[in-house]
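Notes from hallway chat w/ T.B., transcribed later so I don't forget. T.B. wanted the structure written out for a chain they're using in a teaching module, and asked if we could keep both sequence and structure tokens in one place. Agreed to drop them here.
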Amino acid sequence: NAEYMGRVVEEMNIRFQRHWVRRMSNSAIALISEGRAEILKKSTSNDVFFNPAQCVNRDLSIAMIQTFINTRRAELNQPKPSSSTTTASADKQIGTTEVAEEAEEEGEKEVPVPIASSDEGITIFEAMAASGLRSIRYHKELSGVKNIVVNDLDPGAVANIRNNLAHNNISEDEVTPSTGDCSLMMHHFRSQGKLFDVIDLDPYGSAAPYLDAAVQAVGEGGLLCVTCTDMAVLCGKNVEVVYAKYGSTPIKAEYMHESAVRIVLQTISQTASRYKRHIVPVGSFFIDFYLRCFVRVYTSPLRVKDCACKLSYLYQCMDCSFFQLQPVQRKGKSKRGADKFCAGIGPVVPQACPECNGRFHFGGPLWSDPIHDTSFLLSAIEVIKANMDTFAQHKRVIGLLTAESEEIPDVPLFYTVRSMASSLRCQNPPAVLVRSALLNANFRVSQSHVEADSIKTDAPAHVVWDIMREWVRTKSPVKPKPNTVAERILSRPVTTTIDFTQHKDATRTGVPRYLPNPENWGPKKAAAGGRFVGTKRRVSDGVMVGGDGKREKVVDATPHDTTPKE
């Protein structure tokens, strides 16, 4: 029966953990320090996944979660409005009471959901912990944490976590190790009425399989932290794989890393909307070889109706940098003043590119709403500055947060100067002059945290190309070959008054924003743990399949001998 099988699985896990500890005791042990935490790891083995390059990820997560804790505390200290006031306020923000009546008829009555609170602190669930370093740092460096559940599918990893907790003198009542499939664990805790204030998903590869459980198990107004390392796929290497995992089609372009972030956000949004929940991104980043998204999750059937208006399809010219976004849905008003949702109108581009007559790729949908909250990011910077000694990568993290906080929030994607200059076969204009020309023409402009050479602006595409045409005409003359992309773009007249005088807001000083990576900084091979390692590596039918898709023969795949053998 189920109880007997549960005891068998538990006994197998205990035997495997003992076996792992014996193997570890016979190996050289390395002591790894990061922040205020220390972990023990076999120096000659990759049984448990650990990548020092993810120090930036962990530093950033600590700053963002501490900011969330501070924000949550401030929200709880605010006077609580009455139910009638809250409902009326929601109706006012979204439309009129007609919307509420309509929602009630559909079984979606707007009921005010209070933000989950605990005077003792927040609860955190780390779904795929590996060495447990992240949760140990959370416990030691965050203030206002009640309990952390640190989970992994690999019993060997959980045994290592227990050793690391003991080494750091941390009680298992405060940081509780857990062995199991993270999705099942989240469903289990939710079925017991326990929702987490913070859920951290940091898998080896895509986080898409775990989002459904996560958006249900995070508490009201809670923080969902999501990492995806399958950047090659998200950037357009295998469009069919992206569509299968994320329900979107990527396009290879200079902005592909930002579009990858936006594809993941739309997946989280659509997953949450199935459960009458919506997301508010507070920070979404591309870092090195992965992306990291921080979103708050709320319950509101009315606000869920806005979700499709926050998504857009993408048209990208195949020959030049021209792109255009088309909203999936549009929101208007009925005759009675209520919100009315309609299908998007398109296409928003002609059959051929208006700049070079090229054809278009069609991609998406992707998240086209803001990907960050500026005030939240500035607060996270202050958290780091107040505790510089615990953040090993504080310069990079502050630079990253600063760069994103300066982005224009309501302008998705960007151009790059080198890509446009390449299309025209001309010398690259200094990016500061391009930004100055846009500012002098009364448009907004900023860089993207993704790329130092980026131009993120609300100016129409023809204005951006007019700047490049004027640059070629006055500063870098070229003679394009007939019937080429450069010739077709340069043959169009300049219809905008261009002024390259340097604008005072075209440059940013102070904090370095785009720091180089240290040596040997990048992704790491998946852990070679046991057959239970579903999150990092798995064994099936005598064949071990790694996160990179490589298959290796295994002589004995029992829990007592999980060492891969050629």
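Follow-up for T.B.: Confidence is low (pLDDT under 50) at residues 18-26, 83-107, 530-566. Might be a good example for the class.
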